[in-house]
User: Fold this.
Amino acid sequence: MNFSAVIVAAGSGTRAGPGQAKQWRDLAGKPVLRWSVESLLNAGVKNLVIVTEPGARSIAEDILKDLPGWTTTSGGATRALSVQAGLVALADRPTDEPVLIHDAARPFLGAAAITGVLTALANADGAIPALPVADTLKSGAAGSAVVTKPRDNLWRAQTPQAFRRDRLLTAYAAWNGPDEPTDDAQVVEQDGGRVVVVPGDPMLFKLTYPEDFAMAEQLAGRARITRMGQGFDAHRWGPGESVWLCGVEIAHDETLIGHSDADAGLHALTDAILGAIGEGDIGDHFPPTDPQWKGASSDKFLIHAVDLVRRRGGTLVNVDVTLICERPKIKPHRAAMRARLAEILDLPLDRVSVKATTTEGMGFTGRGEGLAAQAIAVVETPA
Assistant:
């Protein structure tokens, strides 16, 4: 199903304590906003609008600069105005296209919640994920006598909430409540719309207070798994004047022969990353029979593999490459290779390792017939 989405990230989040607004803070090494953006991109959202405070658009753009398929727009003084600004930013989309409205402060957005509300929207004007109230409810001021309230048929509403864009805009235009609405379903309800509930997710809780961040840090670790992949590549030597290894050109009396630039180090590393996420090998994505890759720079292959990791909501943790050859000498170029890999992968230098070894004259590398490379990559992805 084609759908668009609006992520509301314009709040100041003062209840979350001092410091940056909660949507910009790090959660398990990744900004809170990015968690939801990656989830929606992975779910196939066609257009994604991030609504921010006017002065914070550059923060969002910096956080998301390596991800495709999103735009930013400035929000209003209230959540309701920010949602409407996001809907206006989708004006070029079909009026009846489903749109999800999601709070940036709910980072643990899973595929089931997205699918659930989109499916339910087929027979309703709106669909929301919600959890039944489990605690006994009391009414009364703190320190005074309280009254127990029935909890039957009461729900804790969450996001993302799904509507058709024109239906939600119409409902907002008709809103006449005495107070600002606290969610979008409330607006459609008042306008006579039918909003249905689908099963919510306890992980979709909203980061509101400082203690929520402490709990989220623990949950983030449990909600992710570590994957490892290995890669191997070899190319034969042929006539030439230089060789590409780990993204660095080295003057040499021979070159490696291959369909692309034959950078065995980058090829092995690309396969290691693809292997870590179960995405086959480099030949599946860049067939050597395809003429467009003849002589291509292998950093394109590596960038593609890293992009696939990010589209799955994953993070590349560290990489280790070993070059196996008698010549050329790798040590004089190792620092440049590490720096180039760190640049391509957007990793700190201490998470990038490049080593070299010989086979002491044994085998095809020992005889000087070719060069080999092997690599290991560690990736963290949602469980």
About this structure: The chain is about 30% helix and 30% strand.
